[in-house]
Design goal:
Chain B: Adaptor protein complex 4 (AP-4) is a heterotetramer composed of two large adaptins, a medium adaptin and a small adaptin. Chain B: This is AP-4 complex subunit epsilon. Chain B: InterPro entries: Adaptor_Complx_Large_Subunit, AP4_complex_esu, AP4E1_C, ARM-like, ARM-type_fold, Clathrin/coatomer_adapt-like_N. The complex is a heterodimer. Chain A is an alpha+beta fold. Helices cover 56% and strands 18% of the residues of chain A. The C terminus of chain A is likely disordered. Chain A contains seven helices and seven strands. Chain B is of the alpha+beta class. Chain B contains 47 helices and 17 strands. The chains are: A alpha+beta, B alpha+beta.
Chain lengths: 193, 1037
């Protein structure tokens, strides 16, 4: 079972934390700090597994982590999960994020915490791996987003109107700037004169 | 609102309190549109926990959403259910979730399965009835649902026996997956559904553990997955690793083992660090079975010892631990200490180290006592304050009690300790950690008299010097003072003690002051001193029976009976929780009117406590008894065994030396280019290797140790004896072998008698022996029943030729039933007993077992019959008693379980010099240990009130002619041996007890179309287990 999923940056600032077992508020923060402490002092060329800190259950639990640019992705699992399997699951998670956000970066995680959580909840449910196929995950998340949008139509008509205008205008503005258009228009101009 | 909630989530994540927003999150989930609901649910699942009060407000929302027609709302509800849901509300929601299992949408079915998995984890009893639905989920046409259901099975199969029949299906699934029958969607890097494969392999290894027939089913598919998983990507390594693990867990097959070993080899030598780690991990696993594999990889292991990654280093040490034996222990521990000095202080490594040294020494594997003390000194001074407090405690216990070795040796050890501590104290003591100082002062106080020519005065002086050091904490000071108190009798010491006590009697620390005053008095009054230190062995009445009269008086004056803290908490919790039931339970209310005036009642209440006290004494008594037995019967055998070990070790040593020149060539090839002076390095490594791997051989399972040992240290003696519980029964029933055998059994079974598994009986019926029936009884002095308390060995040679022929025929199971019954000893045949079932057999011996129910015990009867024409020699039965003792003492008495497994083996010699063994396993069910408890209604009432915790469940009613309540209860009585106390109208009260003495009370009442049952028992999990059998019985009716 997966006990917790933590994402934090190189300075130990948490960017996402999800616990599948209950810990008190303070303990959770301590776990994050402790995990960061354990993970951050490891070199690049050492293995991606280490034993969990005292707070999260000591040597019965494992920390499996990957380091991407500025972010650490850490999964804390018990002995019933396969280490390499989880390592690849992190890869799938990150690739999915990358697809959803188009070149995911730390800021995406900050400004769209809810979206990241939604994606995560399609992959892992109650500590169990639910889905490992990237395309499936994206389909489910998209379906939910779509439904939200259609529902927003009933509740938030004014907001929709605004966004509709935006959506109508947006494609037109680029068209004017488009070099293709200009190149057509420019030769016409002198003929008028 | 949504934006605000997201920000609240972010604040909480950063560690700022945002509890004010919790209620709004719930409101959002309740009232919002889909987009808001989603955020609301998300916030709730992040903010709240299962026991949070606000969660109850969410239940209705979840219910509503589960019934929604909108797919996404249902999904959201299921997700939140699997993340957190109050345990007591599960019955309300269960039918809805079950219904979702038949939903046409695959994603909903899948999530429903996982939600049920969650329910199973938090409340296994409530989902017992839907196991068939899990099976259906396993057969679902969508692979995703099937994958989800594997999570449940992985959990369920922890107790594999009832799922053996599914092995075929799992193998079939794995074969299809490996064969690429799944849709391409499931591929990950061209590997078909790797996570699914990993899970299946884990399930298979659980199923095939120690079970040959089941294992045989999976050899082929394991072989195939080994073959298919080509080394190219991380995820295939994951599958390979699981495969290897499975192969080593299930019943071994040499071909597969070979392949697996090769695989591990590839892992270990891999340049990828993650794989190296896994390889080492696999090695720790494998060397327990086959230490020679470690020999093959010795050079790699040594390189790993110097690896820059501390995790790898640790894993390597773990491997080394498992191959530790008498010859290499010094080298390994030295490596360990190096590791500690250089890398970092981690308390649990230190603990590991200590646990490592401990059994070695207690088995006298360590080179000598001096070495041990010295090592421990280093450990203490290195570990310092980080050390686990158990370490010094255990060490002191070891010093005080010894470890079963000769008295002389023990004294020697103590003298060594005293010696080394004195030298330590004479040098600079400032750098010694406090814990070590405490150990030193205690040891000096206790044992310094052992050393000849050592004046107590000198020791006291040293201690006094220590006392004055500035950095000594007051805790250590009090240790030192008490050590001085022990030593203060001597002539010179008294003056010094006076001086010290004067200084400290004005100390600000009250403890120190008191101790100083004590010291003062003790040192001035030698008579008091002598008297005081003779009082060491005071008997303590742990059951507090002298308080009984006080308690009964208080109770008769209307005081509330004592409740254990957990009961009180439970009650509080129940009060808080929402009651789903109609309010009053009528029976207890009516009973509460009868006052508790009886003087007996307090003893009833304190029964459980006094029981535990007694059992402790019993245990202590029996262990000393047993020790004699071990010495007498096992002294020789053990000695023989060790000799064997030494011989084998010597052989391996020989084998290892020629192997050595080969391996350095591999290791050396790379380093040759870099280092000119390689030969020196290599030679050193070789030396290290040979010292590390010396004495490795097949016998080394006896030297194994690891983390798991840490808990069993104190009980070492016990388990050791239990492990080797076997009895040599000579078939000729010569008196000498008999006496030893029965004597031995007797000793063991004394221990049994408290564990309620009482008698082990060996009946050997031998076709060729024509002597008269001989029986030998061994009775204990106190008890009257020969069966229960003595290990009765009944050797019963009898020779009906007809039977022999029957036995020779293959498939004779039907015949054995009747023929065996005729041999059933008359004492047993009067007792109610189960059918005799054939456990295992081979061409010459068949083994059957049956359970007979005595009122106060369960007799487990093993019947051996010789079905060949030739005689059988050297018969010995070995029960896996370690398991039994553990399970029975902990599971039955402390935490009941629905069933336990008994395993054992019989070895015999059909042909002289050729020993064969026959393995067998049998299951004992909880019902075997249930006996009726005869009570009057009034007694029942009192007992009911004395337990406070209720478990409630609805059971099926048996619909037949007559009163359904009566019919149901009598069915339960028949099957489960319950006692029906009384039936009044639509209510009935039933009582039973779990051997030896744990009552369980049932109060049944017809409620709607079903039978509502409340159970109360002092054992917390007994009601759950009993309910399981009630349900099972009623399902079968």
């Amino acid at each position: 079972m997966i006990k917790a999923i933590l994402i934090f940056n190189n300075h130990g600032k948490p960017r996402l934390s999800k616990f599948y077992e209950h810990y008190s508020e303070d303990t959770e923060q301590q776990i994050i700090r402790e995990t960061f402490h354990l993970v951050s002092k490891r070199d690049e060329n050492v293995c991606n597994f280490l034993e969990g800190g005292m707070l999260i259950g000591g040597s019965d639990n494992k920390l499996i982590y990957r380091h991407y640019a500025t972010l650490y992705f850490v999964f804390c699992v018990d002995s019933s999960e396969s280490e390499l399997g989880i390592l690849d699951l992190i890869q799938v998670f990150v690739e999915t994020l990358d697809k959803c956000f188009e070149n995911v970066c730390e800021l995406d995680l900050i400004f769209h915490v809810d979206k990241v959580h939604h994606i995560l909840s399609e992959m892992v449910m109650g500590g169990m791996v639910l889905e490992t196929n990237m395309n499936e995950i994206i389909t489910h998340v998209d379906a939910q987003n779509k439904m939200e949008k259609s529902e927003a139509g009933i509740a938030g008509a004014p907001a929709r109107a605004v966004s509709a205008v935006k959506n109508m205008n947006l494609p037109e503005i680029p068209k004017n700037i488009n070099i293709g258009d200009i190149s057509i228009k420019v030769p016409n101009l002198p003929s008028f004169k | 609102m949504k934006e605000i909630m997201v920000r609240a989530i972010y604040c909480e994540m950063l560690g700022y309190e945002a509890s004010f927003s919790y209620i709004h999150a719930i409101k959002l989930a309740q009232q919002g549109s889909a987009i808001e609901k989603r955020v609301g649910y998300l916030a709730v699942s992040l903010f709240l926990n299962e026991s949070h009060d606000l969660l109850l407000l969410l239940v209705n929302t979840v219910l509503k959403d589960l019934q929604s027609t909108n797919l996404i709302e249902v999904c959201m509800a299921l997700t939140v259910v699997s993340q957190l849901f109050p345990k007591d509300m599960i019955p309300a929601i269960l039918p809805l979730v079950e219904e979702k299992l038949t939903n046409p949408k695959e994603i909903i079915r899948r999530k429903a399965v996982l939600a049920l998995h969650k329910f199973y984890l938090i409340a296994p009893n409530q989902v017992q009835h839907i196991h068939s639905k899990f099976r259906k989920a396993l057969c679902d046409k969508d692979p995703g649902v099937m994958t989800a259901s594997l999570h449940i099975y992985l959990q369920l199969i922890k107790n594999p026996d009832s799922y053996k029949d599914l092995t075929g299906s799992f193998v079939a699934i794995l074969r299809q997956v490996v064969g690429g029958k799944l849709p391409v969607d499931f591929n990950y890097h061209n590997v078909p559904a790797p996570w699914l494969q990993i899970q299946l392999l884990r399930i298979l290894s659980l199923l095939g553990k120690d079970d040959q027939s089941t294992s045989e089913l999976m050899y082929e598919v394991l072989d195939e997955s080994l073959r298919r998983a080509e080394m190219n990507h991380n995820i295939t390594y994951a599958i390979l690793y699981e495969c290897v693990k499975a192969i080593y867990t299930i019943y071994p097959k040499s071909e597969l083992l070979e392949k697996a070993a090769k695989c591990i080899g590839n892992f270990v030598v891999s340049p990828k660090i993650n794989l190296k780690y896994l390889g080492l991990k696999a090695l720790t696993y494998v060397v327990q079975q086959d230490a020679s594999l470690a020999l093959q990889h010795q050079m790699t292991i040594i390189e790993c010892l110097d690896h820059s990654d501390s995790i790898i280093k640790r894993e390597t040490l773990e491997v080394l631990f498992r191959i530790t034996n008498v010859k290499n222990v010094a080298v390994i521990v030295e490596k360990m200490l190096d590791f500690l000095k250089n890398v970092f202080m981690e308390p649990d490594i230190l603990f590991l180290l200590y646990v490592g040294c401990f059994p070695l020494l207690s088995d006298t594997y360590s080179p000598n006592n001096e070495w041990f003390i010295q090592t421990m000194n280093v450990v203490f001074s290195l570990g310092g304050e980080l050390m686990h407090p158990d370490i010094p405690n255990n060490f002191l216990r070891l010093l005080a009690q010894g470890f079963g070795s000769e008295e002389e040796e023990q004294q020697q050890l103590r003298v060594f300790a005293v010696d080394s501590y004195l030298t330590l104290l004479e040098s600079d003591t400032a750098h010694l950690p406090q814990r070590f100082l405490q150990v030193i002062s205690w040891a000096l106080g206790e044992f310094s008299y052992l050393k000849d020519g050592l004046e107590p005065c000198k020791v006291t002086k040293l201690l006094a010097k220590l006392l004055d050091e500035r950095n000594v904490t007051s805790e250590s000071r009090s240790w030192i003072l008490s050590a001085m108190a022990k030593l203060s009798a001597g002539p010179g010491a008294a003056a010094l003690a006076l001086q010290v006590s004067e200084r400290y009697s004005s100390s600000l620390d009250t403890v120190l002051r008191q101790q100083a005053l004590e010291l003062l008095h003790l040192s001035q009054d030698p008579e008091l001193h002598a008297r005081f230190f003779h009082l060491w062995h005071v008997q303590v009445d742990s059951s507090l029976s002298f308080l009984d009269s006080f308690v009964s008086e208080a109770l008769s004056q209307g005081a509330a009976p004592y409740k254990a803290p957990h009961q009180r908490q439970e009650e509080l919790r129940q009060e808080k929780a929402l009651s789903l039931e109609p309010y009053s339970i009528s029976l207890p209310v009516s009973l509460s009117s009868c006052s508790i005036t009886d003087r007996q009642s307090p003893t009833l209440l304190s029964m459980s406590s006094s029981l535990s006290g007694n059992s402790n004494e019993l245990k202590a008594g029996s262990s000393t008894l047993k020790l004699e037995g071990v010495k007498r019967v096992w002294g020789k055998e053990g000695y023989l065994h060790q000799q064997d070990a030494v011989e084998e070790a010597a052989q391996v040593e020989e084998a290892a030396t020629p192997a050595l020149p080969l391996s350095p060539q591999q290791g050396g090839a790379e380093s040759q280019q870099t280092h000119g002076d390689l030969t020196v390095v290599e030679q050193e490594k070789q030396k290290l290797a040979s010292s590390l791997f010396v004495g490795l051989g097949s016998q080394n399972s006896t030297f194994l140790m690891g983390k798991s040992d840490s808990t069993s240290q104190q009980f070492r003696r016990k388990t050791r004896a239990a492990d080797s519980t076997s009895s040599g029964v000579s078939e000729r029933s010569s008196s000498s072998s008999h006496s030893s055998c029965s004597d031995f059994l007797h000793n063991n079974l004394l221990e049994d008698s408290q564990n309620s598994l009482n008698t082990q009986k060996i009946g050997v019926s031998n076709g060729t022996h024509e002597g008269p029936v001989t029986q030998s009884f061994q009775t204990t002095s106190k008890e009257t029943s020969p069966f229960l308390d003595a290990g009765m060995v009944l050797v019963q040679p009898c020779s009906p030729q007809t039977e022999l022929r029957d036995f020779v025929q293959p498939g004779s199971s039907g015949i054995t039933q009747t023929s065996l019954r005729s041999q059933f000893p008359p004492e047993l045949s009067q007792l109610p007993h189960s059918d005799i079932s054939l456990l295992s057999s081979d061409h010459s011996l068949s083994l059957s077992a049956c359970r007979a129910y005595r009122d106060d015990a369960l007799l487990f009867v093993i019947i051996l019959s010789n079905c060949s024409q030739s005689s059988t020699n050297g018969l010995s039965v070995q029960l896996d008693c370690k398991h039994i003792f553990e399970t029975f003492s902990t599971l039955i008495q402390v935490e009941p379980h629905t069933q336990v497994t008994v395993a054992g083996s019989v070895s015999y010699r059909a042909v002289p010099g050729h020993t064969q063994t026959l393995q067998f396993t049998d299951k004992l069910f909880l019902t075997d240990f249930i006996r009726p408890l005869t009570l009057s209604t009034e007694e029942y009432g009192k007992l009911w009130l004395s337990f406070s915790q209720d478990v409630r469940q609805n059971l099926k009613l048996i619909q037949g002619e007559g009163d359904p309540l009566r019919a149901t209860l009598s069915a339960l009585k028949e099957q489960l041996q319950l006692h029906i106390v009384d039936i009044i109208g639509s209510e009935g009260i039933v009582a039973c007890r779990l051997l030896p003495d744990s009552p369980c009370l049932l109060h049944c009442r017809i409620h709607g179309g079903s039978l509502a049952v409340w159970l109360r028992s002092p054992l917390l999990s007994l009601p759950d287990c009993l309910l399981y059998y009630c349900q099972k019985t009623l399902e079968e009716c």
